[in-house]
Design a protein that fits this description.
The chain is of the alpha/beta class and 341 residues long. Helices cover 28% and strands 27% of the residues. It folds into two domains: 5-138 and 300-325, NAD(P)-binding Rossmann-like Domain (Rossmann fold, 3-Layer(aba) Sandwich); 146-295, 2-Layer Sandwich (Dihydrodipicolinate Reductase, domain 2). The chain has helices at 14-23, 46-49, 64-68, 84-96, 116-129, 146-152, 174-179, 186-194, 203-214, 298-314, and strands at residues 5-10, 29-35, 60-61, 75-78, 100-103, 132-135, 157-168, 219-229, 234-235, 240-241, 246-256, 262-270, 277-285, 288-293, 319-321. Strand 2 (29-35), helix 2 and strand 3 (60-61) form a beta-alpha-beta unit.
Length: 341
C-alpha cells in the first residue's frame, strides 16, 4: 500500500484515544482529525489531547460536517456508542459521502437483530454511495463469535457451540467497571439490567453471528444476568467496593435450533476475578476445544481489532458488513506496512 490511509477518529473517550495512539505507530495511516461533541475539545490539537508523538494529527471538530469542510478522510473509526440505531444515525453524514466506517459499537456486529429497518436502510444507502460500515471488537467481534466460527472451519459436522469468558475487570477502564455495576446494591443492578441500562452489550449479537455463519435458524433465544457479589473489600483505580455489593456480572445467552443444535455463551466479568480466560468448545466431528489462558485483554485488543479491520473493509463490497463478510484481519508490526489483502 503506497498511499497512506487518511483516518479520522469519531469519539475521543478512552477507546478512541487509544485508537489514535496505535494509529500514530502505524506507517500505513495518516491521522487527519478527531470528532467529538464535547465543546471543551473543539478546535484543540488531537496530538496534544492524546499525548501523541510530534506529529500533525489535525484538530478536534464538533461534527463530521465541520471536518469535511476542511479535511477529507478515507476512513472514520467510530467509538461513540453501543446501540446500532444510534450509531447508524451518527454515521449517516459519513456514509452519505461514500466513506468507510469501522465501529466498536457492539450492536453493529449483527445490527439486523435490534435495528432491522435501519440495517436495510443503511445497507441501501451504502450501496448507493459506495460506503461501508462494520462493527467489530473483541467481545463482541472475536472471542465468542469470530473465533468459534473459525474453529468450525475444520469440522465435518457441528451440533453445538459453547463459549466461556472470564474477565478480571479490576484493570479495565472506568466506563466498563461502571457498566458491570461496581459498588451498586445487587437489587439496584438487577433493576438497571431490567431497564436495559446495564450489562454487557452485544451478547445476543455474538450468538446470532455464529448462527448466521453456520446457517442455523435459532429458537428460544434467551439472555440472563445476575450480579457477582464481592466476598471481600475491593479497591481499583476507579471504584471502592465493599463486601456484599456488586462487583460485576454473570451473563448467559443461549439458543437452539428445531433440530437441537445449540449455542451457549457464558460471561463472568467482575473485579478481582481469579483465573481469567477464554474458552471455546465445539460439539463436532472432530471435537475441537480452545483455551486462551489469561483471556484476550479487551481494552487494548478492541483497539487493535478496529484498526486491523480497516484494510479488509476498504477492500470489501459496499454495504452494512458483518465480520463474516470480510477476510480475517491480521495484525501488523509498528514498522511494517499494513497490507490490504
Amino acid at each position: 500500500m503506497n498511499q497512506k490511509i487518511k483516518v479520522a477518529q469519531f469519539g475521543l473517550g478512552p477507546i478512541g484515544r487509544s485508537c489514535l495512539n496505535l494509529l500514530a505507530q502505524r506507517p500505513a495511516f495518516e491521522i487527519v482529525g478527531g470528532i467529538d461533541i464535547d465543546p471543551a475539545l473543539a478546535g484543540k490539537s488531537v496530538a496534544e489531547i492524546c499525548n501523541l508523538p510530534e506529529i500533525d494529527a489535525g484538530i478536534v471538530y464538533p461534527s463530521f460536517d465541520a471536518m469535511w469542510e476542511e479535511v477529507q478522510p478515507d476512513v472514520v473509526l467510530h467509538t461513540a456508542g453501543s446501540r446500532a440505531a444510534i450509531s447508524f444515525a451518527q454515521c449517516r453524514p459519513i456514509l452519505e459521502k461514500g466513506l468507510t466506517v469501522v465501529s466498536s459499537c457492539e450492536e453493529l456486529l449483527y445490527p439486523a437483530y435490534r435495528a432491522p429497518e435501519e440495517t436495510k436502510e443503511y445497507d441501501e444507502l451504502c450501496r448507493s454511495t459506495g460506503a461501508r460500515i462494520l462493527g467489530t471488537g473483541v467481545n463482541p467481534g472475536f472471542v465468542l463469535d469470530v473465533l468459534p466460527v473459525c474453529l468450525t472451519g475444520v469440522c465435518r459436522t457441528v451440533t453445538g457451540v459453547y463459549g466461556e469468558r472470564v474477565v478480571n475487570a479490576s484493570y479495565r477502564r472506568q466506563p466498563l467497571q461502571k457498566k458491570i455495576g461496581s459498588g451498586l446494591q445487587p437489587d439496584e443492578f438487577r433493576a438497571l439490567w431490567n431497564e436495559g441500562r446495564a450489562g454487557h452489550a452485544g451478547f445476543k449479537e455474538s450468538l446470532l453471528l455464529v448462527a448466521h455463519a453456520l446457517g442455523w435458524k435459532m429458537e428460544n433465544l434467551t439472555e440472563t444476568l445476575e450480579p457477582m457479589i464481592a466476598d471481600h473489600d475491593i479497591t481499583t483505580e476507579h471504584f471502592q467496593v465493599a463486601t456484599g455489593l456488586t462487583c460485576g456480572l454473570h451473563q448467559i445467552v443461549k439458543a437452539e435450533t428445531a433440530e437441537g443444535y445449540a449455542i451457549h455463551f457464558d460471561l463472568k466479568m467482575y473485579l478481582d476475578a481469579p483465573d481469567p480466560h477464554d474458552a471455546v468448545r465445539l460439539e463436532s466431528d472432530p471435537p475441537v476445544e480452545a483455551y486462551l489462558k489469561g483471556g484476550v485483554f479487551g481494552d487494548s485488543a478492541t483497539v487493535a481489532a478496529v484498526i486491523n479491520a480497516v484494510p479488509r473493509v476498504l477492500a470489501a463490497r459496499p454495504g452494512v458488513l458483518l465480520m463474516t463478510d470480510i477476510p480475517l484481519a491480521a495484525g501488523a508490526s509498528h514498522t511494517s506496512p499494513l497490507l490490504a489483502a
